[in-house]
Design a protein that fits this description.
Keywords: Aminoacyl-tRNA synthetase, ATP-binding, Cytoplasm, Ligase, Nucleotide-binding, Protein biosynthesis. This protein is α/β, with parallel strands linked by helices. It has 25 helices and 15 strands.
Length: 688
């Protein structure tokens, strides 16, 4: 699929990476000095348990280490691409003042990432739908196998023709085959290879013709009849901030998998155990001593947490009682468990209100669920002699990892590593998961890959049989490009974010006088559609591994690649269909036809784009990157706008006439757009 977004130049990309690297190095050095100062002469895990502030610094430092590794690798790759050595500065007027020093690069070879590089074909596609790329790939794979049975290619080089005059698709594999033959001493031009491949292509119901360019490109022309028939089928069938990113991205991945008939278990893994809950329970007992008999009126859990955190930081006696509550909680002391449940209920109620507004369905499963399973994991690891003693801790070094998993602390307690191992095993064994997807921020990538490596070492799963992967994402930034916070510097509550979105969405609708043409109920529906849709789309339309800037002003714009523009485009199509007043006649036309005539160039162009939807779905299923759906949706909306500007669906000059083939194209477009909205979790409305 062609991405309409212009790519950054290599020089600009290098400069940006250099700046990020220097910032990461500065932060990394500062955090490392802090940790060294704290941990002098003491066990680091004990310190982390006793100091939430230090744990936060330590976690941030580990994330920076990993991010610095990524930046170093990206810089090295970019320099090689530019033809420079990894330690040389680029020759450009916009070049960075200095390149990363070799010593720093050598130092950051440090943490090994055990992520698997081998690719396995996990998903069997039983129906390619309207995907031309997959059909053509199968066709050319067979033809190349017949023409050159001794040549092995990793993939078939297929893409859409940039110039429509040359054809619809293009196969460029002849050049790679010619190079492989040249390495064996055979002298053959790419064009000769291409001719031999083309000769082995069988006749199909979707390829009109192929021709070979002098350079060896094989241009493919699709049959117009096939396009007309496939679009007719689409038109006839009704196609049915921290937490912010993981929730929105995870929900969309679930929607995509459910669309293609996977059985999906939506697990929300929440932190409901450990020091912070001991702190909250201790504060609960002091503030509401009758909490056992009367439900405490905790209206704002974030404010309640801030109160308890302040006491924890400033009052040593309170801190000791908080740790005591942790011990009692882990021992399942009834009174403490009751308090813990009340706090969890308040948190659960808040998040449910957010999830209901965003139409997100989840099964909550906190760390507490895995408490009894952790002990079983430790016993298994001890029995298999894979744990090592280190500063009083029991650690495991999975294959390819030089940073261990701390399975048992020096005081005998468990860690996040222990619970993540227990959760992995439970999902594989008890839930019988074939494909495990962890939607967690990119800073946890090294940790998750280490957990996965441990699971492979222990024989819990084989990567050729089970797909276990981390779907990472970047940070949500404010317009100052710093971590997204309120003006007072506090974390933004999701419910406040959604309320602000609704307020601004309604203001925009009223400003454009849309309210004058809608009932109060229609206005409310449009407000929520725009408000919640813009928040989701702004996240999903960005490459998920990158940070993105949260800006209501930008996401509520009515032009460009925004949810507002797309929702308006959809309602415009629906408005055209309503105004035709010819639903009965159109259904009669459908019943008497089996394809959509495509006589105007704009009709054919839109039809071809509609059929690319399956290619987009298959790409996203493979990569779990959701922005290609947004790119495709935006392209479809703009192309449909061009279409009905050039091709009247309803002619009103003279005798009124409805073009049913164009009406069918509008319906097919609306069906595909609605399916894209469903995947992204957006709810379009009929009127806006």
């Amino acid at each position: 699929m062609v991405n309409p977004t212009a790519s950054t130049s290599e020089e600009e990309e290098f400069s940006a990476l250099s700046i990020q690297l220097r910032q990461a190095e500065a932060q990394f050095s500062a955090q490392e000095r802090a940790i060294q100062a704290y941990s002098a002469g003491k066990g680091i895990e004990d310190l982390l348990e006793k100091s939430p502030e230090l744990r936060e610094v330590y976690t941030r430092n580990e994330k920076l280490k990993y991010r610095k590794n990524i930046l170093m690798a990206a810089l090295e790759a970019q320099l090689k691409k530019n033809g420079a050595s990894p330690t040389a500065a680029p020759s450009s007027a916009k070049k960075a003042k200095t390149a990363a020093p070799a010593a720093a690069a050598e130092e950051q070879k440090g943490a090994l990432n055990p992520k698997l590089t081998e690719k396995f074909d996990y998903v069997k596609v039983e129906d390619y739908g309207s995907s031309m790329l997959r059909r053509l790939a199968d066709l050319f794979k067979a033809a190349i196998g017949k023409a050159y049975p001794d040549i092995k290619l990793d993939n078939i080089a297929l893409n859409e023709c940039q110039n429509a005059k040359l054809g619809d698709y293009q196969c460029n594999s002849a050049m790679a085959i010619a190079n492989k033959l040249k390495a064996t001493g055979a002298k053959i031009r790419p064009s000769e290879v291409a001719e031999k491949i083309a000769a082995e292509l069988p006749k199909t119901d979707f390829v009109e013709s192929v021709d070979v360019a002098p350079a060896g490109f094989i241009n493919i022309h699709l049959k117009k009849d096939y396009i007309q028939h496939r679009v007719f089928t689409v038109a006839k069938s009704e196609m049915h901030v921290g937490h912010l990113r993981s929730t929105i991205i995870g929900d969309s991945i679930c929607r995509l998998l459910e669309l293609v008939n996977f059985d999906v278990l939506r697990i929300n893994h929440v932190g409901d155990w450990g020091t912070q809950f001991g702190m909250l329970i201790a504060h609960l007992r002091d503030k509401f001593p009758d909490f056992k008999e009367k439900t405490p009126p905790i209206g704002d859990l974030q404010a309640f947490y801030k109160e308890s955190k302040k006491r924890f930081d400033e009052d040593t006696e309170f801190k000791a009682r908080a740790y005591e509550c942790v011990v009692k909680l882990q021992s399942f002391e009834p009174t403490i468990v009751h308090g813990w449940q009340q706090i969890c209920d308040v948190s659960r109620k808040y998040f449910k209100s957010v999830y209901d507004r965003l139409d997100i369905k989840l099964i909550e499963r906190g760390e507490s669920f895995y408490q009894d399973k952790m002990q079983a994991v430790v016993e298994e690891l001890e029995k298999r002699s894979v744990l090592k003693e280190e500063d009083g801790r029991k650690v495991m070094f999975p294959t390819g990892c030089n940073i261990p998993l701390t399975v048992v602390k020096s005081d005998g307690g468990f860690t996040y590593d222990t619970s993540d191992l227990a959760a992995l095993k439970q999902r594989l064994n008890d839930e019988k998961g074939d494909w495990l997807i962890y939607v967690i921020d990119s800073g946890q990538s090294l940790h998750m890959e280490t957990i996965f490596a441990a699971g492979r070492d222990l024989g819990w799963y084989k990567p050729e049989d089970k797909r276990v992967e981390h779907v990472g994402f970047g940070l949500v930034l404010g317009e100052d490009r710093k971590k997204f916070k309120t003006r007072s510097g506090e974390t933004v509550r999701l419910v406040d974010l959604l309320d602000e979105g609704c307020k601004r969405a309604r203001e925009g609708l009223v400003e454009r006088k849309r309210d004058e043409h809608m009932t109060p109920e229609e206005l409310d529906a449009a407000e929520k559609s725009v408000a919640f849709g813009c928040v989701k789309y702004a996240d999903l339309s960005h490459t998920r591994t990158q940070d993105y800037v949260f800006s209501f002003d930008r996401m509520l714009e009515t032009t460009g690649n925004t949810a507002v523009y797309l929702l308006y485009a959809y309602t415009r199509i629906k408005s055209i269909l309503r105004s035709s007043g010819a639903q009965t006649e159109y259904e009669a036309w459908l019943a008497s036809n089996d394809s959509v005539p495509l006589d105007h160039p704009s009709e054919l162009k839109l039809a071809k784009l509609i059929l690319r939807f399956s290619d987009t779905l298959l790409l996203v299923l493979d990569t779990l990157m959701l922005h290609p759906i947004c790119d495709y949706l935006y392209q479809l909306a703009t192309q449909s706008s061009d279409f009905y500007r050039e091709c009247w669906v309803i002619e009103t000059k003279g005798e009124r006439k409805v073009h049913y083939n164009r009406m069918a194209l509008c319906i097919a477009t609306a069906n595909v757009m609605k399916t894209c909205f469903d995947i992204l979790g957006l709810h379009p409305v009929e009127k806006m």
